[in-house]
């Protein structure tokens, strides 16, 4: 890595070289990660449904998603005649960007994130809201009624569920006294039991559950997958997309899961801190634990109806998250 | 005549064409939905995409030649439809059926009913967005199909009925295998209840949704579990008993709510009753021939006496009737099939308005449509 960096720095200068390497490494990592996650999802689904999942391509089907990717690469890229052409082409490209930016902000070690920021959490919240714009672009520009419905549902859903996510994150911020994700790994500010530092989930279980529900909804995953509810809206916002353009949305969903799972791990599960193993492995393991819970929910529950989904967010989750925040503040005030 | 659409105000409503190719229209139903936002204003089922002219075909075939067509009307409970045709012809021609065949028919038909209901539960939950129960149900259904295949040789489109019995006898090992399947099924009821019925999301999607009133059902001629979910205890097996059914004890489960959950519960209870019937029938299965010795084989040409007759059975979807008009020839002059899914679908135009699109899918799934049976 460092040799490569020196070589590139000679040509591009130090800053650009770091940027290029960072982006390439991050994208490469996320892509392979998505391939793994899709395989994992199919395995989890298979075992929940009393079957084996993919078994044929590679050992235990490990190369199945690679084969699927190759198939998608060879598909025709279809553009509907009546589509809003440029918006239609731009949407699958844009959908990837915010997630990528967020991924660069997640700390993976004591002094290691691709981009460090003192207000990392705010930037993440702002950026992760952008994904919905490209989803809506996709739905709108396809000029298909199912896609428009999917896009509209998506906007309403993400707007509603961002609030509880933010509120539950805020209650941890109150305890940690920082918005810098790097400092969430500072075990000195963690709650202690018999001198042992414990992750924030121990003192904020309600916020952790709300956060989990919120990110499940934000990534459009079942039981909140109404923007792409296949039994109602065929394919939802990506009905008219084919080949790699469809794969981009698919990729973005899984990357989003990974990134938000890692964010949840950072906020509630102690981030990269853990005994024995290196930091990057700990954060991955914790993020995967969050993701497996999301997969478990997806393959167990039916889908909520749209109005039920909205009232669940506005009438239950948001008041609950607010109450949790107030209680946290009061308790902290009392202790101080 | 298609129903006249109310004049839509500009920009207020729009039309969404759901189907004929859509993941949850169960084959080739087309729903022309007029929507305001996501709320349904008018729902108009458009049918005929799977019309194969079974009634016309019946006029051009001998009674035996039409046998394979029967199970292709409703491919999910084909056994019942096959036996209905056979029993109708037997009744009009006055062919005696051996005891063993009568009881065996009940066993096979009830197994087929359970497999049909299991598939329905899976597909219905799939419509609600839960993919896992589908595979659980298919796992159980597979055991039944395997059992039926061992007797009839086919998995879905059975053609084992013969005028005067069955084409093949149940082997000596059949009761043991059948009991094995039953005990496997019975071990599953609790799991289904925990996974599906007790689920909060399922209940919120099912309770109070798509309410069919008793009067609506009766005026449209709705039958089967859909009717029994609205509180009318009508079951052809009880109302006009046929075959060996009067010998067995079973209840007709009903629910008075008429919503999606009621239709679900009725079907689950019905499967339990079918298990009860099969258990009794396995006990009572007499020895003897499976086919009457003076049976008219499929090769010979059977002639029915002149006249018009009607014969009805309870299929997995409701009242299935066969009207046969014979002029004394080897082929029926006219055969009319009263298939239960047709009125069950027709009533939906009354139920859908006011619901959301997501509910439309749930309601559509809850009446258990088989489109080839609607179109015939």
Protein model, in words:
The complex is a heterodimer of chains A (336) and B (376). Chain A has 336 residues and is an all-alpha fold. Chain A has one domain. Chain A is 65% helix and 1% strand. The mean pLDDT of chain A is 82. Chain B has one domain: Orthogonal Bundle (Cytochrome-c3 Hydrogenase, chain B). In chain B, the strands form three sheets. Chain B has a three-stranded antiparallel sheet with strand order 1-2-3. The relative contact order of chain B is 0.19.
Write the layout of secondary structure elements.
The complex is a heterodimer of chains A (336) and B (376).
Chain A: H1 2-12, H2 14-48, H3 64-73, H4 85-94, H5 97-103, H6 120-128, H7 131-141, H8 145-176, E1 192-193, E2 196-197, H9 205-218, H10 230-233, H11 243-268, H12 279-298, H13 306-335
Antiparallel strand pairs in A: 1-2
Helix pairs in contact in A: 1-2, 2-11, 3-11, 4-7, 5-6, 5-11, 7-8, 8-9, 8-13, 9-11, 11-12
Chain B: E1 14-18, E2 30-36, E3 39-46, H1 54-59, H2 67-70, H3 78-93, H4 99-127, H5 132-152, E4 161-162, E5 165-166, H6 174-197, H7 200-206, H8 214-220, H9 225-228, H10 236-239, H11 260-284, E6 307-314, E7 319-326, E8 334-338, H12 341-346, H13 348-351, H14 357-366, H15 371-375
Antiparallel strand pairs in B: 1-2, 2-3, 4-5, 6-7, 7-8
Helix pairs in contact in B: 3-4, 4-5, 4-11, 4-14, 5-6, 6-11
